[in-house]
Amino acid sequence: MVASVSTVAYLGLEARAVEVQCNLVAGLPKFVVVGLPDKAVAESRERVRAAMAAIGLALPPKHIVLNLSPADLPKEGSHFDLPIALALLAAMGVVDAETIAGYVVVGELALDGRIAPSPGVLLAAMHAGETGKGLVCPAAQGPEASWAGQVEVLAAPDLIALLNHFKGNQMLPGPVPGEVDPPGQGPDLAQVKGQETAKRALEIAAAGGHNLLFVGPPGAGKSLMAACLPGILPPLEAAEALEVSMVASVAGTLQGGRLTRTRPFRSPHHSASMAALTGGGLKVKPGEVSLAHLGVLFLDELPEFHSIMDQRGPRL
What we know:
Rossmann fold
């Protein structure tokens, strides 16, 4: 019998559907994960083995094959732990395969069976809503997933509680949507004395969404006035706040599912690398440009960025 569980792989701000297929065949006992898994996904075998032992289950003495389909899509991250465990439990007959077929599953497993948070849950919840499925996620990220709208969210603290819910022995409570943080209080233009022309330029840039370049001697107040720009920008609309939160979810900086109506303000140091500014790296993460989406990207000492880019790659 082949058991399947739906999950996602993250490509930037896009969640791609992935099917975790598990098959138990006769042969020497072995646990194999295929389908272009990265190191974190390959190591899920040991976390799943330990988590199942913690709830009193052992792997069957068979050849266990886990396939992450589509096989040509790279799979990265620890959020594949929980779907791999549920696919294996469904193949063993511990949980009903038809029951879990209606959910998208994400979450990292601890060795004692706890379900730990993993980045990108909000994107997975949005994907589940688009495909008409529910979402299984860590309990700590239930408030974050609830912002996706009319999506059934099962936020489980550990593996045994999730299995009890699927068996009908214990119902998981529905998560409460995270709170909306009040607008932050930053520098105010009232703190800047004089510089009426520069203030007028700030107001025009804020009203029209324009770029702005301040040139002047040290101590003229350029950095202070730039830091005042978020204070004269309108608060984020509901759809815009969700966009900003999706970026933060992928970056793993969305704490407690709390959304904010304040526009982002990012001020990277001029020694930041190309990957830190534009995103990327061995494990792709949003850079400062993406984290400033719908907000302000403040490049203080701009000529210094130019020299750094000359040394490390193409110019901005």
